Amino acid sequence: MEPLLSVRDLTVTFGSFTAVDRVSFDLHEGQTLAVVGESGSGKSVTALSIMRLVELGTRGKIENGEILFRQPGGEVIDLVQQREDDMRKIRGNAISMIFQEPLTSLNPVYPVGDQVAEAVMLHQGLGKAEAAERVLEMFRLVRIPEPEKRMVQYPHEMSGGMRQRVMIAMALSCDPKVLIADEPTTALDVTIQAQILGLMRDLREQTGAAVLIITHDMGVVAEVADDVVVMNRAKVVEHGSAVDIFENPTEPYTQALLASVPRLGSMQGRSEPAPFELVEYDS
Amino acid sequence: MSAGTPLVEVRDLCKHFPVGAGATVHAVENVSLQVGRGETLAVVGESGCGKSTLAHTMIRLHEPTSGQVVLDGVDISGLGNRALREHRAKMQIIFQDPFASLDPRRPVGRAVAEPLLIHKIAKGPDADEQVADLFTRVGLEPDMMRQFPHQFSGGQRQRVCIARALATRPELVIADEAVSALDVSIQAQVINLMMELQSELGLSYLFISHDLAVVERMSHRVAVMYLGQIVEIGPRSAIFENPQHSHTQRLLDAVPIADPRARRDRPLLTDEIPSPVWAAGTSPERVELREVDPGHLVAAEG
User: Fold this and answer.
1) In the β-sheet with B289-293, what is the strand arrangement from edge to edge?
2) Coil/strand/helix, residue A95
3) Over the stretch A51-102, which tens digit does the pLDDT of each residue have?
4) Cβ–Cβ of B216/A266 closer than 8 Å?
5) What is the pLDDT of residues B16-33, one digit of tens each?
6) Contacts of A159 in chain B (CB under 8 A)
7) CA distance B296 to A72
C-alpha cells in the first residue's frame, strides 16, 4: 500500500551543524510510528521539518530530501516544495501537531474552548455556533469531564493532563490524516501519562489518523507504537516493528539504549539494590 | 539494614503554606519516617503530593510548621542559624536541573570548593586538592574544574553537583528528582555512580522520584505519599511485590512496561488528585498507619 507520508533522505542543517542526516521512513494509514532517541538525536527536528516549522524562527534549513504527503484527495505532494501559504492550509488541518508542554501551547488570556473553536472556524469555515458544537463534541471525544463547564475555563484553571486533552482535541478537531505528537506525555505525571497514552490508542481506532510519536521514553514506545525508528546523532540507526526492536535489537546503539531502560519488576526476589548492567557503546 | 539508631528520624512533621483568605495548603501533614545509615529511602508520589516539600523541610530550606527532625541524635528543627550551619554539613541536597544549580559565570571547581571554604574544612591548595579528589570520585577529570557549566553535558553537570554535595562529607544526601532530567543512558550511569558512592562512603539517600522503575533499582525502602501524607511505607520488595494501598497500586499500574507484548488495555480514567488546599478552620483527616508485616505500614482506607 502506498504510504500516507514518506520521508526520503531528509537532511536538515543549522549553519554548519547537521541535525538530521539522510533520514527516511514511511508512515501508513492507521499506523503509530515512534521516532525514539536521546537529546540531540534529531527526532524533534525531523518532526518540525514535516510541519515545515524548522525554517520559521530558527535558522534551520532543509538541505535535501523529500517529504511526500498523500492528500485527502489522493494527490501526492512534496511538503518540502510547498509555499508558506499552502503549508498554512495543511498545518493544523490535514497534519496537526501536539507538543510537550500544553501550557506554552495555549494562549493564557482566552478560554480554552474559544481556542479550539478558532481552529475549526479557520480551517473548516464553520460558524460560531457550529464551532461551539464541534468543540463540545471534541471535548467529549478526549474524555474531558463536564465539557460545557471546561470550555469556558482558562488554561491556568486546568491541570496539566486536562490541558493536554485540550491540545489533543484541538489537533483532532479538523480530522487530520496525520497527528504528530512530540513528547506528548513527558511533562505529565505517570498516572496522567497512562491516561493520555490510553486515550491516544483509543482515538486512533476512532479517528483512523496515523500517529507519529516523538519520544525519548522506551516505555512509551512499548505502550503505543506499531513500528519504531531509532535515531542517534542525526541518523536512523535502526528501523523495525516494536516487538523486533525490543526483542532482537541488532544495532549496538539500540542495545545500549535498551540496557539502560529501568524496567519495573526487574528486581523481583532481590533484597538489595543493584546497579544497571550497562552495555558499552562507542559512537 | 540499619544497625542501631537511624541516621534521621522525622516525627509528625507538618508544613503548611497560607494561600490567602485564611486557606492553607497542607503540603506535608504529620509525616513520620526514619532513614537508616547506608540506606536509601525513596519517596514517591505524583506532582503536588508533598515529596519535595518534605525533603526541603527536613533540611530546613522551609521552616517546619510543627514536628521534629532528629539527625544523628540532635533535633535540628528548632536550632538557630549558627548551630544549624554545623549540622547542615551532614545533610546535602542535589536538585533536578544541574544547570540551574550552578553559577554560569564561575568555573565549576569554585562551586565544589565553596562548601569546603564555608564549613572551614579546607582552604588554599588543600581545597584545590580536595576538589580534584572529588572530581575523580564522581568520574570527572580533575582538569575540568577550571571549565564553566555550559561546557559540560547534562550528565557531567549533575556529576559536578554530586561532587559539591559530597564536599562536606555528608551522611545524608537528598536527591530531589536528581536523575529525572537526564537522558536514559546518562541516567543509568548517574544512578550507578550514586550506588557506588553509597557503598564506598556509607551514605544514606533520601531519593525523591516519580519514576517507580528507577526507585525499584536503587532503594532499600519506599514511602508512598498522597496529599501530604504517607499512605504506605516499607521494604522495597513489600511495596513492589505486595502493595496494599490503592494509591500505591495505582502508581504501579501506570508505569509503562518496556515490552510491547505486555501491552495492557487500561480503563480510560479521567480522575484527578483532589486539592490540598483547606479553608480556614478545616484540616485533612489524619491518616493512621498500621503494620501489616514487619516494617510495612499501610494507611487504612475508608
Assistant:
1) B91-94, B172-176, B204-209, B40-44, B221-226, B229-235, B296-299, B289-293
2) strand
3) 999 998 778 999 999 999 999 888 999 999 999 999 999 999 999 999 888 8
4) yes
5) 999 888 899 999 999 999
6) 272
7) 58
Sign of CA dihedral A47, A50, A55, A56: negative
Find all residues with CB under 8 Å of A178, minimum gap 6, and list them.
A4, A5, A27, A50, A69, A94, A95, A96, A209, A210, A211, A212
Determine the length of chain A.
Answer: 283
3-state secondary structure chain B: CCCCCCCEEEEEEEEEEECCCCCEEEEEEEEEEEECCCCEEEEECCCCCCHHHHHHHHCCCCCCCEEEEEECCEECCCCCHHHHHHHHCCEEEECCCCCCCCCCCCCHHHHHHHHHHHCCCCCHHHHHHHHHHHHHHCCCCHHHHHCCHHHCCHHHHHHHHHHHHHCCCCCEEEEECCCCCCCHHHHHHHHHHHHHHHHHHCCEEEEEECCHHHHHHHCCEEEEEECCEEEEEEEHHHHHHCCCCHHHHHHHHHCCCCCHHHCCCCCCCCCCCCCCEECCCCCCCCCCEEEEECCEEEECCC
User: What is the C-alpha separation between A161 and A195, in angstroms, rounded?
Assistant: 8
What are the helix and strand counts (H, E) for chain A? Answer: 11, 10
Return phi, psi of residue B164, to 5°: -65, -40
**Which residues, numbered 230 to 269 in chain A, qualify as contacts with chain B under a Cβ-Cβ cut-off of 8 Å?**
242-243, 246, 256-269
Cβ(B233)–Cβ(B240) under 8 Å? no
**Cβ within 8 Å of B, A 172-211:** 189-195, 197-199, 202
Q: Please answer whether residues A96 and A180 qualify as being in contact, where contact means their C-beta atoms are separated by less than 8 angstroms.
A: yes
Q: How far is CA A52 from CA A62, A97, A236, in A?
A: 9, 12, 20
Residue among B46, B185, B256 whose CB faces A189 most closely? B46
Is the ipTM here above 0.90?
Answer: no
Q: How many residues does chain B have?
A: 302
Which residue of B99, B180, B183 to mutate against A (max A Cβ within 10 Å)?
Answer: B183
Q: Which among B98, B6, B93, B90 is positioned nearest to B54, based on CA atoms?
A: B93
Which portions of chain B are predicted below pLDDT 50?
A: 1-2
Hey, is A35 helix, strand or coil?
strand
Distance CA B276, CA B278 (A): 6
Q: Is A100 left (phi over 0), alpha (psi -120 to 50) or beta?
A: alpha
Percent of chain B whose pLDDT exceeds 70: 97
